[in-house]
Amino acid sequence: MCGRYFFDLSSDELKSYYDHVVLNATGKHIRVGFNEIFPTNYIVTLGLNQDSRVVPGITQWGSQGFKPGQLMINARSETVEEKKIFFQIDGNIIRFR
């Protein structure tokens, strides 16, 4: 499984999301990743507000695994429905902590 991806700031749309969140992140001493992204980096994430408009936010990539110091960054589609750490809402699989 791949543990990295590329967040391209040459895209005007991605750059506008990045610029929106980086102002808030800087005040909190958080470095938002761009270009090559690795697990544990803070990243731009997108969600919907109450008006169903796309809004950018900041999320740290990865979730605490089952053991201390273990980071979960991927899930196998073949077994995700069997794992107790996940549950479904309206057909969408959600990570439960």
Provide structural commentary:
The protein has 97 residues and is of the alpha+beta class. The chain folds into 2 domains: 1-61, no CATH class; 63-97, no CATH class. It has 1 helix and 8 strands, in the order βαβββββββ. It has one helix spanning 12-27, and strands spanning 5-7, 35-37, 42-48, 54-60, 63-64, 71-72, 86-89, 92-95. The strands form 4 sheets. Strands 1-2 form a two-stranded antiparallel ribbon. The chain has a two-stranded antiparallel ribbon with strand order 3-4. The two termini are 22 Å apart.
What is the residue-averaged pLDDT?
A: 81
What quaternary form is this? single chain
Class computed from helices, strands and strand pairing: alpha+beta
> How does the overall form come out from the CA principal axes?
globular
State the order of secondary-structure elements, H for helix, E for strand: EHEEEEEEE
Count of individual beta strands: 8
Number of domains: 2
End-to-end CA span: 22 Å
Fraction of residues in helix:
10-25%
| Helical run tally | 1
- Regions with little confidence, pLDDT below 50 for 5+ residues: none
Whole-angstrom Rg: 15 Å
Reading side by side through the largest sheet, how are the strands ordered? 1-2
Q: What portion of residues belong to β-strands?
A: 25-35%
Q: Biggest β-sheet, characterized?
A: 2 strands, antiparallel
